[in-house]
Amino acid sequence: MASHLRIGVLLVPPMQLLDASPIDVFGILTPEYLEACGLPAPLTKLAIPVSIHYIAASGPGTYASMTASASLPVTDSLSSPAVQPGQLDTLLIPGPDPNLVPDEDVLTFLRAHKDAGQTDFLVICTGSFLAGYAGLLDGKTVTGPRGLLDRLRKKFPKAKFVERRWERDGRLWTSAGITNGLDLAAAYLHYKVQKELADLVCAMAEIGDRGQEYDSGKVSNVLWWIWLIQRAVFKGWRKTGRVVVPPAAPLSSGKP
């Protein structure tokens, strides 16, 4: 079990703010957080130090744009010594715009960590596209946003995509839709740190109650989307007196 965690968050803007939210779960592991909550000493003694690096090609002193008009300060560039292979235990990859094709320096950074074999990858939602372009998904069993699985399968045919909230294959952990990143984080904590500490953090954050499998199957999920589209069309007709037909497009995860 880890006694200290060194975590990087790879920022390739624009990204989904909620995709990056699992990093806050790791912040709860620290002595500073647990002591500030006034917990009994036996619980605060479970805490471990955590160092977090926010990594982007733009480098320190810049900000990475997120959804909801938010931004995150960048602490490290792709070439910073503290985030090179062997220096990070975990690399969190929040999802960007699924249409974005990452620059080669980002792909080189990811491949270097993969080749070193010392870093766990936590890929959230459309972060699967970044991981796919870098070859991280090749030969792996992975998941991704339910509405984009067909697109992901066509784009990265060397991966085996399954329909689950999260999936693990070796050092590669992937999550489905946006908040499934929190389901993944809860599972990863129970793998990475002392069970009692993982239990404490998950209880405080109120995560980890949902299973790996979805409660509803693929058919019922598709039917729900069809119902929602039809309802929206009907409301549009009520307002305008004419039917507004939505453009044909694959269902997405809500990314821009």
Describe this structure in words.
This protein is of the alpha/beta class. The protein has one domain: Rossmann fold. The protein has 9 helices and 10 strands. The chain has a 6-stranded mixed β-sheet, sandwiched between helices. Helix 7 packs antiparallel against helix 8 (195-205). The longest helix has 23 residues, at 218-240. The protein is globular and about 60 Å long. The model is unreliable at 248-252 (pLDDT under 50).
Give a nutshell description of this structure:
The chain has 256 residues and is an alpha/beta fold.
Number of domains: 1
What is the CATH third-level topology name?
Rossmann fold
Work out the strand percent: 5-15%
CATH architecture annotation: 3-Layer(aba) Sandwich
Flag low-confidence runs. Answer: 248-252
Question: Which class of secondary structure composition applies to the elements?
Answer: alpha/beta
The chain-level mean pLDDT equals 91
Name the helix and strand elements from N-terminus to C-terminus, one letter apiece.
EHHHEEEEHEHEHEEEHHH
Could you state the CATH homologous superfamily?
Answer: Class I glutamine amidotransferase (GATase) domain
Main beta sheet, described?
6 strands, mixed
CATH class: Alpha Beta
Beta-strand segment tally: 10
Radius of gyration: 19 Å
Query: What overall geometry do the principal axes of the alpha carbons give?
Result: globular
| Helix content bin | 25-40%
* Strand order of the biggest β-sheet: 2-1-5-6-10-9
State the end-to-end distance: 38 Å
